[in-house]
């Protein structure tokens, strides 16, 4: 047996990734069922009476559809001239439709890429629908002319088709082949869908010239896993004869994936297997290690034209944009600020994310913008030109999932940010985020850790991305009673990410601010609306406005909710069960103060009770103080963590219910001398 | 010199707006020339960007269909000193093909896009292109409003047609038409501007209906056959001649219809059976290829593959009905929740959807064949507007029936009880019609469980209510109402202040409308709004009623609102009712309309009664 295969076996033994995510709980609940068996046959077109008779999936009777079997194979295709090797990915999927909602699964979209050195093509599509019509199995095949190839961008394409004659009770089946030259990216396999899956099988037929590492997520092991040499067919490439080495992974009765609120990326939790090219072994015996360690990965990235060379070129070009000699005379913080400010005000992010530069640096300058990594890599070059110790940092943005640190896979990353050493302190920055403080990264980047791209003889360095400072918003209301109405002047001061969210929301547009402040419950005084420090990113964002509203009066008493509608009446935690951690992104503190001038002729009739609740998860303080005719009511609440485990969900829910309740409590003022009962709109 | 002239052109109007807007369309000119059966459209556009928030307006998206010839695309940026600082290059252009968007599986269309930015403000984007179309159905579909949220200072449309060529047009809001001619051609020129920025508003016509517009069509055309837009009858005849070639049902389908209708008595019952068959076995899938924008796939295609767009499904339904001996016709309609005004004197494709009309001397039946709702239900999408019924030599505009208050009534029976800790336990027994019927029915019958739960939790349950249990019921598939029961807890209904408890109303949503200060558009209420809440509140044990919200009755020309209260034993009963009539009103009465809704909303959010410690 070739040594490659031995190493594969070792690999299989040692590299089972044990990510004990909470989805496993669901898996255990659902696993001991009668459906937990491989089907009799997964052959295309083999529809059984049992499949036809199936009316619902017993383990999840609400399911709109169920994947009966989903079978994939990836194998290496060697062309007749022994010239090129590609990967052929073959998939056959069979789905039983139970409800009208399930019919949506009869619309199939297969994406494929052309560009950035990747050439992919989808072919061999066959699809059919099976219906039981008066006891007869009727098959309706798709006409190939109704299969549509679409171009959805300069580098992406999709094939779309709909299965014909689909209704409740139908079984749909389709298969296709996707051929790719991207050998570094052996197709991954999702075992889990948004509907239950009865049988999912993925077979990878390895050849001795490529070695991959693999990573299972969402489960600790497979229901079945076999690895063997397939001696049935000998193949050759150049002088080397070989047999395929087969890895076969099976999962049974996989529950539907259920999304939840406050989750950064479902991709972190869904059950799937990923592969990464580890080594290429030439027929001559020469071995090229693609990635074996993070150090190697960093080295490879730095050597790339679209990374390391781009950086060097950016550094050179920077001198044309700014007077570096003059700039170098400035202190480090000022230099950093000048460079980041220059980048933010001259280059616009086009919304793309990638871990490598997508344009040449000259093109980037001409275009006045580009992808986030174009901007940030150029910014690193410019910082270096300004004599600042700066490095690019590879990250995975929030919607792209987290990085598994035991596995040096480049596909974990999708973006680049900036690390600069300013006065001996590490500072993270993202020049593609216009309103973000220069020494902060925007919310989309806050996702565990980033890999610092710098040459190093020892271990690579990672930098935490989630060490976010406390964000806070302070709201102060000054409430005066005049002419039977309350006039309220509000001043908000937002710091850190609270400020960033407001800056992004309004983009400095006073009309957008006015619109957001309009409310049915008060009359906004337009002339009082203003915002402060929209473009002064380092300073807190401020906004102020005034409004008039009518207090509730009943029985000679005035009822005033001191925070009006600022806290709202909705509990943001609404789920009745929780599986995944609750990702609130950053710790956040909200402080509300209302200073109420007690109108003459009134005295305090009732004050809400103070409340202090403080633990490791959150803090809530509510208090009322009186000084002369001024009543000061304060409410503070504080989420102390950015991410909470799922087990804390109901504590958070109950906590926030308290916040809402206290935030809506009213102060009662009574007339000092009750000469006449005031009824207003009320009968007494 | 060319650059200099362009600069002069856009510098003149700048004085009008300065930097008031993030960007402005300085000029846009469209010139259309018809030569034989070919239409050549040339567009020049100049957009000035005043600050970084205006950069978004440099994103240019142009679409053209397969078979059309797109050419001569040029674009450049001019800086504030009038220098050309950037030119469009091939690599700046992003090209997509076939991506029809959410509602379409495939569209035979190219989507070209690019964005040219600059980093010093102000700067100006200038671009132009040409599009050649053979046998067009439209000569122009034009408005000076290019972006709704920034002004267009100057806009012009010119159409040059050969002498003898017949064209009809619909023009509103433009400057006076300038018409010139020579021995070979006639040239029409319209100028207009869009300088008063309009925004979509509640209970208002679409702003497309308010801004200047020119639509021009050939009086005689060729589109899969010759046709005419001389009259609705002529235009309908063209559609009818096309549909007649598409209505043949395959034999198995005819047999299926025979078996479905076996033993079914009465015309309405037969239509119902066939409509249910259509609903159960077909689905809406839109594919636009070649003439597919106007001409459906044949009925035989739908019979075989069981899907199609609105035209194909309607034609299939009409074919089935005809086979069953029932007269039925396809009808063009401009669907959407906001009714668009059809210019009845301008026979032209003014529609975006197709439904089926079954004539009847007592009660005609309208069927939307893309709908999964009850038999005969049109909903806000199709109700109360003109539809062009396609009937040979008798095509005409007929109004679809408008929704009545009874068809849109949302009735909620709510029972509120208190516990010792001040929390309320609330049972809702809601009967939804109208839009809410459509929403809840779709959530129940056509949503994945995950989506359904999220919709219920986040959108269907009363604000501030912690959901305990829920269920949805529909008596039968043709019921035009659906019942939604749920129970919830709330800590915000019984609010204790010392010895007093104030009890908050459980409000229904009164439509949210703009304040009169900012309102720009007249009032257009497309269909009635009718909400009724019947609520029983328990008086907490140990308390007695101390105050109650006075009964209220508001009666206006726009509708009425009432709040009624009575106490019986240990319960308080409240009935709130809001009815808004459909109708159109001028902007000058908007203040009254606003005050009516404001008063109703205020009442809905009031404390409904107070109790104090003590025995009654």
Write the layout of secondary structure elements.
The complex is a heterodimer of chains A (684) and B (616).
Chain A: H1 3-14, H2 23-31, H3 49-53, E1 65-78, E2 85-97, E3 107-115, E4 118-133, E5 136-141, E6 148-151, E7 156-162, E8 171-180, E9 189-190, E10 197-206, E11 210-217, E12 224-237, E13 240-254, E14 272-281, E15 287-289, H4 294-303, H5 305-321, H6 324-328, H7 332-346, E16 348-349, H8 361-367, E17 369-370, H9 372-385, E18 389-395, E19 415-422, E20 425-429, E21 449-452, E22 462-464, E23 471-482, E24 485-495, H10 496-506, H11 510-517, E25 523-532, E26 541-549, E27 552-554, E28 557-560, E29 582-583, E30 588-597, E31 602-606, E32 611-614, E33 618-627, E34 630-639, E35 643-644, H12 649-663, E36 667-671, E37 682-683
Parallel strand pairs in A: 1-10, 16-17, 23-30
Antiparallel strand pairs in A: 1-2, 2-8, 3-4, 3-7, 4-5, 4-8, 6-7, 9-14, 10-13, 11-14, 12-13, 14-15, 18-19, 18-21, 19-20, 21-22, 23-24, 24-26, 25-26, 27-28, 28-36, 29-35, 30-34, 31-36, 32-33, 33-34
Helix pairs in contact in A: 5-9, 7-9
Chain B: H1 2-17, E1 23-35, E2 38-49, E3 59-65, E4 69-78, E5 84-87, E6 94-97, E7 104-107, E8 109-115, E9 123-134, E10 140-142, E11 152-162, E12 167-172, E13 178-181, E14 185-194, E15 213-218, E16 220-222, E17 226-228, H2 232-244, H3 251-261, H4 267-281, E18 283-284, E19 286-288, H5 299-305, E20 307-308, H6 310-323, E21 329-333, E22 353-358, E23 365-367, H7 379-382, E24 386-389, E25 396-399, H8 405-408, E26 409-418, E27 424-432, H9 434-445, H10 449-460, E28 466-473, E29 482-490, E30 494-497, E31 500-504, E32 523-525, E33 529-538, E34 543-549, E35 552-555, E36 559-568, E37 571-580, E38 583-585, H11 590-604, E39 607-613
Parallel strand pairs in B: 1-11, 7-19, 18-20, 26-33
Antiparallel strand pairs in B: 1-2, 2-9, 3-8, 4-5, 4-9, 6-8, 10-15, 11-14, 12-15, 13-14, 16-17, 21-22, 21-24, 22-23, 24-25, 26-27, 27-29, 28-29, 30-31, 31-39, 32-38, 33-37, 34-39, 35-36, 36-37
